[in-house]
């Protein structure tokens, strides 16, 4: 216990907080018709700044595991399994309930219950749960080197599965091998339909490579703790990030970088950028000691899953609340406050920034009160 405090790097908390702030920013524009292109997902192949947010969060989950898994070393195998399964199930159920929330919807002017038959099963929190659970078991049983090998097998194996079982262009929506699998296991009614057809960007098959974002985040955390605050550690972290980005761009020529089917090249690309960003944060915070600005992000990093969950709940309540004009509260806030104040595009952005600031205040208050909700 006495070595935990010096090992805890503030920059890792900042990285996690920055990621949560980014998730709130990109998920809550005032209007989806007015969004600056860097705050939108790539239509299919490619990667925008927004496409970095979710894999960064998984990478941050792995970072946190590099600390928490040490505590499991003193536990028996059965206790470790129980802890991993309990946390995985809890996060998955919370995600499922968030998808279902607020459990009612408007129909012909009346509030009616939202049936389970149309509930989306997967999503952001369920994917976090599955990636955490599988990565935790891999790390527990195979240890660090074995986890690295397992990640390589998952990335190459996923590529093989897409080629072997895909149809036509295996990297297209129509030819993607994970689509029929999701339809078979989940059913079309329980899938995301944001593409205009049943297709889940957090589907079953694409969860396999996403597990690697957690594993690599864990390995990066272990490396940082083992090496300590040295320039050698920092330089090796940056070099590794550059190598991964270069490898991903080369792989992109035959296996396109794509978030929606979470390609293996996308994993290497996002992990590489995460390492570079983390290196910069560590240099500024740990080496130069410039920490005053970190308060902008650490409140998010202290309660990441809770704040993300709370943001989802608040937005869903906005959409449920109906005003006399017939608008929901979400639309009313944009059209009556932010759009008149700053125009279409900037008003939409200002709406998102306002909510980042609001949830920052929530996180700041919780931190001041020493309220930390662990899942």
From TrEMBL:
Q: Where are the transmembrane segments?
A: 12-32, 52-69, 89-107, 119-139, 146-166, 204-224, 236-254, 266-285, 305-321, 341-366
Name the UniProt key words of this record, in alphabetical order.
Membrane, Transmembrane, Transmembrane helix
Q: What is this protein called?
A: DUF5009 domain-containing protein
């Amino acid at each position: 216990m006495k070595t935990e405090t010096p090992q805890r790097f503030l920059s890792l908390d900042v990285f996690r907080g920055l990621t949560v702030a980014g998730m709130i920013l990109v998920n809550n524009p005032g209007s989806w018709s007015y969004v600056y292109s860097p705050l939108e997902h790539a239509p299919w192949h490619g990667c925008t700044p927004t496409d970095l947010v979710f894999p960064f969060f998984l990478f941050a989950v792995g970072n946190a595991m590099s600390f928490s898994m040490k505590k499991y070393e003193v536990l028996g195998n059965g206790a470790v399994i129980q802890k991993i399964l309990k946390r995985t199930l809890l996060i998955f159920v919370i995600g499922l309930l968030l998808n279902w929330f607020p459990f009612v919807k408007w129909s012909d002017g009346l509030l009616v219950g939202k049936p389970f038959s149309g509930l989306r099963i997967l999503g952001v929190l369920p994917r976090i749960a599955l990636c955490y659970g599988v990565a935790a078991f891999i790390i527990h049983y195979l240890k660090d080197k074995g986890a690295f090998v397992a990640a390589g097998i998952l990335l190459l194996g996923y590529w093989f599965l897409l080629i072997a079982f895909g149809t036509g262009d295996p990297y297209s929506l129509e030819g993607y091998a994970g689509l029929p699998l999701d339809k078979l296991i989940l059913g079309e009614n329980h899938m995301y339909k944001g593409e205009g057809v049943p297709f889940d960007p957090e589907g079953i098959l694409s969860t396999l490579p996403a597990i690697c974002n957690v594993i690599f985040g864990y390995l990066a955390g272990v490396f940082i703790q083992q090496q300590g605050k040295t320039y050698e550690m920092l330089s090796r972290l940056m070099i590794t990030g550059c190598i991964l980005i270069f490898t991903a761009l080369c792989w992109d020529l035959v296996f396109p970088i794509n978030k929606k089917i979470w390609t293996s090249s996308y994993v290497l690309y996002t992990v590489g950028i995460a390492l570079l960003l983390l290196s910069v944060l560590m240099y500024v915070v740990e080496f130069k000691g410039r920490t005053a600005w970190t308060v902008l992000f650490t409140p998010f990093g202290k309660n990441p899953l809770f704040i993300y969950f709370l943001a989802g709940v608040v937005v869903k309540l906005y959409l449920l609340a109906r005003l006399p004009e017939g608008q929901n509260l979400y639309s009313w806030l944009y059209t009556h406050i932010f759009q008149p104040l700053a125009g279409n595009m900037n008003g939409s952005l200002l709406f998102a920034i306002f909510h980042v600031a609001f949830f920052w205040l929530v996180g700041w208050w919780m931190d001041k009160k020493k309220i930390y909700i662990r899942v």
